[in-house]
Each structure stands twice: as C-alpha cells, then as structure tokens.
Amino acid sequence: MHFGTGQECAEFKVLRDKIKMASRGKTETSKLKQNLEEQLDRLMQQLQDLEECREELDTDEYEETKKETLEQLSEFNDSLKKIMSGNMTLVDELSGMQLAIQAAISQAFKTPEVIRLFAKKQPGQLRTKLAEMDRDLMVGKLDRGLYTQQKVEILTALRKLGEKLTADDEDFLSANAGAILSQFEKVSTDLGSGDKVLALASFEVEKTKK
C-alpha cells in the first residue's frame, strides 16, 4: 500500500490502532462473558445437586445450604453490577444473565436449568425443555404442580428474552404466576437495571418480614 504524504500514513496508523483496540476489546468481552457463564453454571449446578439430594438431607441442612448458595449468587450479582457499570457493551451482553440471577435470588425462579438457559439467552432450548415437559406430563412422569411452576418460569423467561407467546401461553401465565413472580415481572419491566436490584431486594426484605 502506498501513501502520498506523512499525514496520510499517520492517519492510517491511528485507524489501524483503533481497529486493533476494538478487536482486542471484543475478545476480552467474549472471554469475560465465558468466565461469568462458567461461574454461574457452577452455582446453578450447586442448586440442582441440592434439589436432587433434598430427600437425603434434614430440613435445617437443606435450608442452610440453599441460603449459602443464594448468598453466593447475590455476591456474584454484585460483582456483575460492578463489571457492567458504565460499559454499554457489557450491559447488552450480560443483561440477560443479570435478570436471571435476580430471578434466582428472589426465588421467582426455582429451576436451575431454566435459570441457566435464561442467563445464556437460549429461547430455543427453553422451548425444547417446555416440549419435553409437555410430553412428561402426558405420560405421568411429571407432577402437575411442578409442571405448572416450571412452565411459568419458562414462559416468563421467554417473554423477557423478547419472544412472542401464544394467547394460550399468555393466559396460562396470567392464571398461574404467583406473587413473587408477578413482582419480579413488574420491577424487571418498569425499572432501569440499577433500580431492578434495589426494588427486588426491597421486596425480598418485606417478604421475609411477613
């Protein structure tokens, strides 16, 4: 490549450096996102293992372990907020993860697999999970109460991810969403990301007092 003047050469170098920085920033964002997803996976696995071993634990042991895991999730959420602060690229990349963590902390969502797919913005896999649940319910492999809880979580996650729900799904959600889930839906829709955590935390404090 030939440059006619020193100024043109200098401008090219500035442009080249900007491209390099943008590329490096994108790579760092990708690595950061991967590390955060791995941390979240570990916490979700803890919750899943806890639920699977619930019958083998006494009530106090179960509640204490769950409380510790939720506290770890809360600390993870605080770290996530600091990382995202002022960085719009990260806000776009990690907003789904933040919402999913808030849903877990508030106990609006109780199914680790659904929380994980919500955090990773995987609407296709959420719909696959729902189809599997429909089949399991029909053949008697899934309890109706558990089916309702998990379906409400999946439909809420799909809505948050911008997916269009059928009229039947909207009706199911309206009929079966509990108070905690409705509150989560409200604060996560109406407020900016910084206020979501505060509003949800306030709701948790009030819920604990009752």
TrEMBL record:
GO terms for cellular component: beta-catenin destruction complex; cytosol; nucleus. Pfam families: ICAT. It comes from the Eukaryota. Keywords: Coiled coil. GO terms for molecular function: beta-catenin binding. Residues 133-207 form the Beta-catenin-interacting ICAT domain. SUPFAM superfamilies: beta-catenin-interacting protein ICAT (SSF81730). Residues 26-60 form a coiled coil. InterPro entries: ICAT_dom, ICAT_sf. Belongs to the CTNNBIP1 family. This is Protein LZIC. It comes from Neomonachus schauinslandi (Hawaiian monk seal). The gene is LZIC.
